[in-house]
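Why do we care about 3D structure at all? Because function follows from shape, and shape follows, mostly, from sequence. That is the central idea of this module. The next example makes it concrete: a single protein chain, its amino acid sequence, and then its structure expressed as tokens.
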Amino acid sequence: MNIKACIRSLRLRTLPLSMAGIVAGLAISLSYGSLDTAVVITLITTTALLQILTNLSNELGDTLKGTDTAERQGIRYSLQDGEISIPQMKGMIATAALLCCISGLAMIHFSFGTLFATEPLLLIVLGAAAIWAAMRYTLGKNPYGYNAKGDISVFIFFGLVSVAGSAYVCTHSFSPLWLLPAAAIGCWSVAVLNVNNIRDMKSDAATRVTIAMKLGVRRARIYQTLLICIGWLLLLTYSLLNVRPMAWVLCFMLTIPLFVIHLKGVWTREDKALDPMLPLLVMASFATALIMFVGAWAGIC
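And the structure:
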């Protein structure tokens, strides 16, 4: 098996997006006390494996359904170029799913000390749902990513579950206020998917339906702008409701130029020229979450 091709299919540039929710959740957890190292390590590992499972499943699903063609505007991947066979990709997906299960169960055990109590069992069910969502985005007879339902799933799992779920695993508690930063990260995660769908509207038209396609280019760009702005509004509201000092708010402002550059690119670029806007938004989201964590760790929030 071509190792370089396998690594390319992992799409490691997407990992900071999934990490943004975890980092935000860890920032919330710091206000409740110190973090358990084993829980944090397995939490990060499980999240990274889920993202990789999603990426591999998406590549296989898009290939089987004929979506990844020569006309596709995004980066070319290994199955598309024939560097990995379909059986090899299925093996990689099975391995990633197994590792997700092992890492997730270890995380729950380190957090609660058991797998056989109400909270651990509920988290196991939630983890199983996350694995199902990761694989069924483009795989199966009726993948939800091909029926304009991907935005909802991304908002739930990359936003609400990622942020609030990781904070719960670390603290064994929950506050409704956590849903504000969780929804903010969720909005930005959906925005990453949306700009990807705007870029691929022409090549996707024959095989799938996305929110961007339903809206059309202009309204999809408006949707993108709303997702970014609502995310910021939610995050700043969370800071103010928690009586954050002005230094906290000003720290967040450091990443606003990145979001502005992203939106400018979304409104002025088309097709393949949009591709750099994806990693820019991913890194902007991660940087904002990282500032949130550093601020919590430094005690300024």
